[in-house]
Structure formats: structure tokens, C-alpha cells
Amino acid sequence: MGSERTYMDSVHRDGRVWNLSIMALLFLFPAAVAVIYGVLPDWNGLLMGLIATAPMYWAVAVVETFTYVPMLGAGGSYLSFVTGNISNLKLPVALNALDQADVKVNSEEGEIVSTVSIAVSSIVTTFIIILGVLLITPLTPVLNAPVLEPAFAQILPALFGGLGVVFISKNWKIAVAPVILMLALFIAVPALNAGTVGIMVPVGVLFTLGVSRVLYKKGLL
Amino acid sequence: MEFSVNSPVLFVLAGIVILAVLAQSAYFLAKAWRRAKAIGMDMDKLRRIARTAAIFTIAPAVAIVISVITLAKDLGVPLPWLRLSVVGSMSYETIAATNAESAMGLTFGQVSALTARQYVTIVCVMTLSIMVGIWLVPLIGKKLQNGLITLENRDKKWGDILSASMFIGMISAFLGYVFCDFSTVFTGDMSGLIPPMVMAVSALVMCLCGLAVKKLKWPWISDYALPISLVTGMASAIPITALLG
């Protein structure tokens, strides 16, 4: 237990150092461009751009942090919130790995499995994007070919079909109510679409937790 | 120096940040791997998990490359390369770039040549708007996780249900999203059926993989079940879209 705590503590310590360093580097990018080209931002454009963009994404980021950190584990969270593409890549990768290893994310084994899967996924993604950038001229007509467009447009349904079967079949009693609720909401409310699904994730999580708690208290789980 | 959105200096700057992010992933991978060895985990199993994660990542990563190509029309290659390797996503970057450009009187998708000043403004909007997750996790991640572990230790069974409920809640939101265009069917437009049908194909393939593991005793399939169902689902989208789109 002692060494487990030490390992987890060291993950948090290293994660803090890495994330804050990467954050500083990300700010250095526009700063360096400004210095090299001797320009300052268009302050009015910056302010108006931020007003139009930041409040929604800040709110979403806060909600995502509280929603995803418990599912990703410590190392997985530090990595995922730096590398991005959480719901469409990092979280499914981690969920599948945890299922493959048959461990819980908050155990030490789960923490390791989640970190390994997300780190490997991040590295592979980075290399594939580098390859894409290097080969952008020959790749553009291939990847933009109309015949392939439907395949890439349907990644999320293809991803959550498989993942849904695995988790719902194992937890069908928990899944019935949230799946029905989400289907009803997404079919009936036109405002719910690809742009707003991120906001519905915490809604789904909180609703499922509530339903599970009631079922658990009634001895049905 | 004359500015261009594809200037070599921008590639170098973006490359430095991406290299640092790559180093972070390699560092955490090595750290977790060492710990796994130290506590006697099954390393063969961990290798298989790593292999599955790598294979599964390929198709979504290619989709990210497509996003880089799309955004490169306005912003050049280095910025989308950086933004989609670190934190960002296609939808976020498009919205942030559109808002920043329209604040300066430009129209996203119709910009022929950005000035250095416009470029710096766009990068600042994109960076400042997306930064919360990077600093919030160091701030509250440990407390959040420790709270959850305490909760789980207090009631083991509820702890297991809690984890499963969070996963199911997330998955149910995305299953709902798959049906967001379904109502078009009521107006005679069958394109709303495409995502549910793709999802059904993927789910069916996952069930077949499960059957192959149980009935045919092919345990190796379980390592590849998710990548197989993902790619098959994506491939099925081509004829399904041709039929209903």
C-alpha cells in the first residue's frame, strides 16, 4: 500500500510538472511567432474571438475534467488532457484496455494499463500525423477521395457500436435507463448533435450514477 | 522576414512543442512499464494491450490527418499539425479559428493569405480557449482521484458499480448522438439511418468476435475485436451511405 501510494504520488508530481511545462511551451508558440515577425496580436480581434470562443470551451473543459479524470486514471488524465481527442480516441482506448486486462481503473494495475494504452495511442497518433504532414501532397487526394468520405464521417458510430456491446452486455441493468433517455433526447431535441454531445456526456454520467444508486439501494444490482 | 502560414520557422516551432508532447507520452509509458514489472504484472498481457491500443488508434489517427488537411487550407500546415497533436480536435479548432477570423472581418474557408498579426491573433484565441484542461488536471486531479478511491474503499461493491456507471453514462451519450439525425426518417430522408446502421454493423461484428472467442476457442480475437469492429463499421458506411445517403 505504501509503495502504491508512492507510485501514485509520483505520477501526480510528474504529471503536474509535465502539464504545466507543456502549457508554457504552448504559450511560447504564439509568443515566438510574434517576436520573430515583430507583430502584436490584433487586440480587438483577440478579445472578440475569445468572447465568442472561450466561455463555452472553459465550461466544457471544467465539466470534462470532473467527468473524465475518474475514468482515465492519473497518468492517463495528464496525458489525455495534453494530447486531446479524449472521447473519440483516448477514453475508448483506455476502456478497451481495462476490459482486456479485467482490472479497475482505480487499482494500481488499472492505473498502469490505462497509462500504457493512452501513452501508446498518443505516440502512434503523433507519428501518424507526422507521416501525414510529411506526405500531405500525395495523401490529400487519397484521403479526400469521395469514396472514403462516408467511412471517416462515421467513425463515432463505428467506434461506439463495438464498445457499447462490450459494456452494455456486462452492465445491462445499469444501461437500460440512460440509453433510453439519451436516445429519446437526441431524437427529440434538434439542438443535440455532434457539437453538443460533449455536454451530454456529464449529463449521461450523472443520470446513470443516480439510477445506479437507486438500484443498488433497492438491492437490484 | 516575410510571413507565410507554411513558413519553415513555423514548422520548427510546432515541431518543438510536438516533440515535448511525444517525450511526455514516452516518459509516462516507461514509468508505467517499469512499475508493472516491479509489481509483477503479466508483461505479455501488457504487451498485447499496448499492441491493441496501437492498432486501434490507426483509423481515428488517419481521420485526424484529414482534419489537418482540411484546416491547412486556411491556416497552413504547421498550426493544424500542432493543434491536432496537442489538446485540440477538428470541431474545436474550426470553431476557434472561425470566431477569431470573423472577429477580424475574415471568413473561415475563404482566406487566401493571413498576415503575421492575424495569424498570431488566431493562435492566441485557439490557445487561450483550450488551455483549461491542461492546468485543471494538475490542480484537482489528485484530490478527485483520492476522493474516488476513498469512496470505493468504503464500499467495494458500490465502487465497482460507480466505475461501471460512469463508463455507461459516457457510452449512452454517444449512443444517443448516433441517433441525432434519426428524425429525418419521418420526413422521408433516409440519411438519418446511416449512423445507426453503421453502429449496428460494428456491434454485430463485436458480437461475432465474442462468439469466435467462446465457441471457436479463438482467444486471440479478443485482443483485436475493437479495431476489427471499428474498421468493419467504417467500411460498411461506404455502401450504406451509397444506399441511403
The number of E-state strands of chain B comes to 0
Low-pLDDT residue spans of chain A: none
Order of helices and strands of chain B: HHHHHHHHH
- Could you give the count of β-strands of chain A? 0
Largest beta-sheet characterization of chain B: none
Structural class of chain A: mainly alpha
The overall pLDDT of chain B, averaged over residues, is 91
Helical content of chain A (DSSP H or I, runs of 4+): over 70%
Quick structural summary:
The complex is a heterodimer of chains A (221) and B (245). Chain A has 221 residues and is an all-alpha fold. Chain A has helices spanning 2-37, 43-72, 74-83, 86-101, 108-134, 136-143, 149-153, 155-170, 172-188, 197-217.
Task: Walk me through what this model shows.
The complex is a heterodimer of chains A (221) and B (245). Chain A is mainly α. Chain A is built from ten helices and no strands. Chain A has helices at residues 2-37, 43-72, 74-83, 86-101, 108-134, 136-143, 149-153, 155-170, 172-188, 197-217. In chain A, helix 9 packs antiparallel against helix 10 (197-217). The longest helix of chain A has 36 residues, at 2-37. With 245 residues, chain B is mainly alpha-helical. Chain B is 78% helix and 0% strand. The mean pLDDT of chain B is 91. At the A-B interface, helix 1, helix 2, helix 3, helix 4 and helix 5 of A face helix 1, helix 2, helix 3, helix 4 and helix 5 of B.
